[in-house]
Amino acid sequence: MAVSNTLIDGDRLWQDIMALADITEPGKPYTRRSFTPRFLAGRAYLIEQLKAAGLEVRIDTAGNLIGRRAGAKPHAKTIMMGSHSDTVPSGGRFDGIAGVVAALEVARALRDAGIELQHNLEVVDFLAEEPSEYGLSCVGSRGMSGQLTNAMLDFTGPQNERLGDALIRVGGNPAKLSEAVRKDIAAYLELHIEQGPVLEQSKTDLGLVTGIVGITRLEISFQGAADHAGTTPMHMRRDALYAAAQAVTAIREQAEALASEPDGYFVATVGILTLEPGGANVVPERAKVIVDIRTGKREKTLRFLESIDAATQDAAEKASVERSNFKTLSDTMPMDCDLGLLDDLAKSADALGHSHLQLASGAGHDAAFVGQLAPAAMVFVPCLGGRSHTPEEWAEKHDIAAGAAAIFAAVRRFDERTPVTNQTHNSI
């Protein structure tokens, strides 16, 4: 790690990350689930810091927390930075949080140095990037990109609460979601821990993300009959689990086949398998399989879905059950990061003395949705052992500061090289 001359205050950045880490469910480090009281406490802390940085603070109708600094040109578009402050259960201190705080620190560094941009600048904490208890991830960035549908708002979570009602609880307004859709973004930049081992193992300071995988989540359900496990002959059973087991095997085999092809990344995971009624001495009547599909090539997802559709129909027939459901729960397109912004980041890293390499993201991010509205790019920083979504998740202070410094410099490069154009939609 080269010693660089940067306006980023690494100590101040680190203090904010650790302060947010302390806002966690008791006995469950580090847990701050979206829509919960702990999540709102974390946001209260962020609101204080955004206001202290001189930013105008609001929550848009999609529940995104936004701090804004006006640029020199009254009708300029907006350079946006950010990530998310919610966590998975027993998650880490850095996933999402480092990106929000790095964006905040960039805004503070610009203020401290008296640097006025031509463009407007925004720091965003996107609502519920992690899969929420309502069965949906990237709620805020979906809303900002116009992809949070009425059907999604009807998803239910704890105590059968609708997502739309939960959105109201955190300051959003589902009746006016169209007001959250943005057409004024000039560029979007996001810092994130890598969540993989490449940077650490190669001893590289920064990863410049070339693209983000598309993520499709699929639900497959089978309906059989609950019978006594001791008195029902094997050939007379309508065992929903038998069909589900065949489905899981087909999912693994087809995913391995697609992953072995040379043209692009592909993975598929069965992370949820539920059975009813769930008795040790009862033949399962119902089985539900949730599949997480990730690839940088859309056509691979379509081929996979076609194959699994046929395989699960065959599995249901073989098990003498019905395939009662085969539906897509959510579907995100792959996104290529903007080459111009990647060049800004590379030149900035070089000027700061930080080594860098290009790599793709196998995890989803809010940038995948914002990137459908405007040029977008991401910076990865190393994390210990490549581990994430665990209390052991760790990133070094100097690495996060290096990533924030690269974004700071890239923001200035973009602002200087990009002609100011009038925004078509003013979000304030």
Structure characterization notes:
34% of the residues lie in helices and 22% in strands. The strands form two sheets. Strands 1, 2, 3, 4, 5, 6, 11, 12 and 13 form a nine-stranded mixed beta sheet that branches. A four-stranded antiparallel beta sheet has the order 8-9-7-10, covered by helices on one side. With 428 residues, the chain is an alpha/beta fold. It contains twelve helices and 13 strands. The protein is elongated, with a radius of gyration of 23 Å. The mean pLDDT is 95.
Q: How many strands?
A: 13
- Helix proportion range: 25-40%
Query: Which spans have pLDDT < 50 for at least 5 consecutive residues?
Result: none
| Rg, Å, rounded | 23 Å
Number of helices: 12
Q: Please state roughly what percent of the residues sit in beta strands, choosing from under 5%, 5-15%, 15-25%, 25-35%, 35-45% or over 45%.
A: 15-25%
Output the CATH homologous superfamily of the largest domain: Zn peptidases
- Overall shape: elongated
Distance between the termini: 40 Å
Overall tally of domains = 2
* Major beta sheet summary: 9 strands, mixed
> Would you list the SSEs in sequence order as H and E?
HHEEEHEHHHEHEEHEEHEEHEHEH
* Architecture (CATH level 2) name of the largest domain: 3-Layer(aba) Sandwich
CATH topology of the largest domain: Aminopeptidase
Mean pLDDT across the residues is 95
Which structural class do the helices and strands define? alpha/beta
CATH top level class name of the largest domain: Alpha Beta
